[in-house]
Write a structure and sequence with these properties.
The protein is an alpha/beta fold and about 600 residues long. Helices cover about 35% and strands about 20% of the residues. α8 (about 175-190) packs parallel to α9. It is globular and about 75 Å long.
Length: about 600
């Protein structure tokens, strides 16, 4: 058995937020269990460590390995995407694999989101070169163009490419028990290396599916500790230990020790309650949506950040439509993120493909590889117009990246791991480096407040309701609502000791575009980012962060030209000008947070 608690389980249930500090105390006991491997790295954990936890993801491997010397460490590698959301050059893939293995990873589960095995060739060769074990993975999905025989052919190709084990990766939990039996039996007859099943319990079938796979001859299965199992996570390890105990497939794991580990994570999970969602339980509708477990929790978290969680059903309904348009890719990262984000944009903007992410555009250009079925040409034309479509291996079109990046950041890099982190996620890595210099990394998640169980619970005050103390006097404040931004600021309606008052709130920052196109920020004024009034007033479709400003005041631009790059929901989105003309004003700078009701750049026809 492989344990996924330290990677996929918390990625699927609590949006990948489990911190290293909460893994370390229980690590020695996990090491005593006798797992075939522990999946504890890769997937979204690298991104989340830098982006949300202010942790160095490389340190996680090293710290855990000192406490878990016996059990092989396993990671999930997205082939040419590594742990990111685009294809990286071959030099990046090879160096990443080398460093992962030298830091303590022994088994690399390598897959491509489109099952385009041209995209895993470099990673497989590098893993073998540096002494790691290759677990080649095929992504299981259901569509008009997929069949059991097609997956058997994929398994044979993975063995021919040098896989030490082969994984059936059922990322959405849609593999049914009898299909699993047939699929496993056929792959076992066609190949000679151990076969591994990775499934999620999203549809509620995972226990039955795994048991049928065991009857069919599967060698290894994935499970998670029960307190971080079920739903969009993996099925519970303890269930399999109990069911199989005393039989020919008994995994011989210590149930008492598993119970201790489960109790530990039961308590730890309470610290991450704010990342729980209503969309991580068993949902048979996954057979329609086919969204993998990790994506479900992250999509819910991201929609919540956009204050649009109530539209989750609309987004889920849009996902199969976008997937069909993109040629039925298996919904696994990064394809799941591309499809999910595009579906979200289609819903939130009120018009399908009104805004197209950079990643969707690149997917339609062939830069992610060849999808299983033909792409909707109408959508492709809208996204890429008459640009050339890539037919070859996408990485063959990429220039080496590491030497260039090393020259750019030579004074900021502490080690070669920093170089890889920056290459994968430039902006968030630089933010992490700055926090590290300031000694602000690895900050713990606060423990939940302990309350007197015998006393009545204290009332919970929402952020809109609180007490303030001024000159020794205490006032009760409750925010009743707010009005629209106007010339004098934004009006708020508050109750001050139950007396309704209207107050005007003005920003202390004034944003003024200078003649050179720079942004001057002055204290004492109010925000002058105006509301859109004309077609050339360019806004973003959803809240996000400005990654790049591609124009200056005075530039002449053509209709459809990219003006800004904005990151929203971990995807980069190009913002285009709807008209040709001249850039008259720029109201943002790189790194600025933006809202969809603000003008970012003003273009006027000439």
């Amino acid at each position: 058995m492989t344990d996924t608690t330290l990677r996929d389980a918390h990625q699927s249930l609590i949006a990948t937020r489990l911190r290293t500090e909460d893994m370390l105390p229980i690590a020695p006991k996990i090491d005593q269990i006798g797992y075939w491997s522990i999946e504890m790295w890769g997937g979204a954990t690298f991104d989340a460590a830098l982006r949300y936890l202010n942790e160095d993801p490389w340190e996680r491997i090293r710290k855990l390995k000192t406490l878990m010397p016996k059990t092989p460490f396993q990671m999930l590698l997205r082939g040419q995407n590594i742990v990111g959301y685009r294809n990286y050059a071959d030099d990046v893939v090879e160096k990443f694999v080398e460093l992962a293995i030298s830091n303590g990873i022994q088994i690399l589960r390598i897959f491509d989101a489109l099952n385009d095995f041209r995209n895993i060739k470099t990673a497989i060769k590098a893993t073998t070169k540096y002494g790691g074990k290759v677990e080649g993975a095929l992504c299981y999905t259901v569509s008009p163009v997929h069949s059991i025989d097609s997956f058997v052919d994929m398994a044979k190709r993975l063995e021919d490419m040098g896989s030490d084990t082969i994984c059936i990766k059922d990322m959405a939990g849609i593999l049914s028990p009898y299909i699993a039996l047939e699929l496993v039996e056929k792959i076992k007859k066609a190949t000679s290396v151990p076969l591994h099943l990775h499934s999620h319990d999203t549809s509620g079938m995972a226990v039955a599916t795994n048991l049928m796979a065991i009857e069919g001859g599967i060698d290894i299965i994935d499970g998670a500790i029960s307190s971080l199992a079920n739903g969009t996570s993996q099925p519970p390890t303890e269930v399999f230990v109990n069911i199989l105990k005393g039989g020919p497939f008994d995994p011989l794991l210590d149930l008492n020790l598993l119970a201790e580990i489960a109790e530990y994570f039961k308590e730890i999970r309470k610290k991450y309650k704010s990342y729980e969602s209503d969309f991580t339980g068993v949902d048979p509708n996954v057979l329609i949506y086919q969204i993998p477990g990790g994506m479900t929790s992250n999509l819910a978290s991201q929609l919540n950040e956009q204050k649009a969680l109530g539209r989750m059903k609309e987004v889920l309904d849009e996902v199969p439509k976008v997937r069909k348009d993109l040629g039925y890719p298996p919904l696994v990262t990064p394809a799941s993120q591309i499809v999910g984000t595009q579906a979200t944009l289609n819903v939130l903007t009120g018009e399908r493909y009104k805004v197209i992410t950079t990643e969707t555009r690149n997917f339609l250009k062939g830069l992610y590889g060849k999808p299983p079925a033909p792409i909707n040409e109408e959508v492709r034309k809208r996204a890429v117009s008459d640009e050339e479509i890539v037919e070859g291996r996408p990485a063959d079109y990429l220039e080496p990246e590491l030497e260039k990046n090393q020259k750019e950041l030579k004074d900021k890099l502490k080690n070669v791991e920093d170089l890889i982190s920056y290459t994968l996620f430039p902006k968030i890595a630089q933010e992490f480096f700055l926090l590290r210099e300031q000694g602000k990394t690895n900050k713990p998640v606060p423990e939940p407040a302990k309350t007197d169980q015998t006393a009545p619970p204290a009332p919970l005050l929402a952020p809109s309701e609180f007490n303030i103390k001024v000159h020794g006097e205490t006032y009760h404040v409750k925010v009743g609502g707010m009005g629209h931004q106007g010339e004098g600021g934004r009006p708020y309606f508050i109750y001050l000791d139950d007396q309704l008052e209207e107050v005007m709130v003005e920003s202390l920052v004034e944003i003024v575009p200078s003649e050179e196109g720079r942004i001057d920020k002055k204290v004492g004024g109010r925000s002058t980012r105006p509301k859109a009034a004309q077609q050339g007033d360019i806004t973003a479709a959803m809240p996000g962060t400005v990654m790049k400003v591609k124009v200056q005041v005075g530039d002449k631009v053509r209709e459809g030209e990219t003006i800004l790059i904005v990151e929203a929901m971990k995807m980069e989105n190009e913002v285009h000008t709807p008209i040709s003309g001249e850039v008259k004003a720029i109201y943002v700078a790189e790194g600025d947070k933006i809202n969809p009701d603000e003008v970012l750049v003003m273009v006027r026809a000439t």
